[in-house]
Amino acid sequence: MPMSDIAIIPVELADAGEILTLQRAAYATEAQLYNDCHLPALTQTLGELESELEHSHALKAVRDGRIIGAVRVHPEGPVWHIGRLTIAPDVQGQGIGTSLMAEVERQAPSEVERFALFTGHLSVANIRLYERLGYRETRREQLKPGVELVHLDKSASNPA
Question: What is the pTM of this model?
């Protein structure tokens, strides 16, 4: 399907339930990859998500009334921390994540100097996406035995 039939718009608090469902579906493959069904994205409660949405900048991708993707940003001074880029499993690989990331970067105020994010070391497709968008690995952090977080960032003067 063409990207022209997708609207990227701000998340509303009323979207929390649908976004939580999307998040759980999207992170199911990550849970299998890491053999860990207790990933924070899978154990987050609706109340926790609602609180997070109240304190973040969040966008959703909508097609035919269905939320098929979402991303959240937590501003911290000159850095926008991007998190929970989630795409519905049945529409992954169609450029929705790329479009959400580009819109997040486009909406950053002029005082933002860089974007930062992280993903797991086994999430090779995620790492490839971020690198294709101009993000570069800055460090790795051991989360627990067998799991490393790969931290990436990008200058805000180099948008997607």
Answer: 0.89
Has residue 44 been placed in a domain? yes
Residue by residue, DSSP assigns 51-86 as HHHHTSEEEEEEETTEEEEEEEEEEETTEEEEEEEE
CA 116 from centroid of its chain's CA atoms = 11
Domain housing 119: 3-155
Tokens 């990933």 belong to 39
Write the pLDDT tens digit of every residue in 141-156: 987 777 889 999 999 9
User: How confident is the model over 85-101, as pLDDT tens digits?
Assistant: 999 999 999 999 999 99
**Coil/strand/helix, residue 44:** coil
Backbone angles phi, psi at 112, to 5 degrees: -75, 125
CA gap 19, 11 in Å, rounded:
9
CATH code for position 115: 3.40.630.30
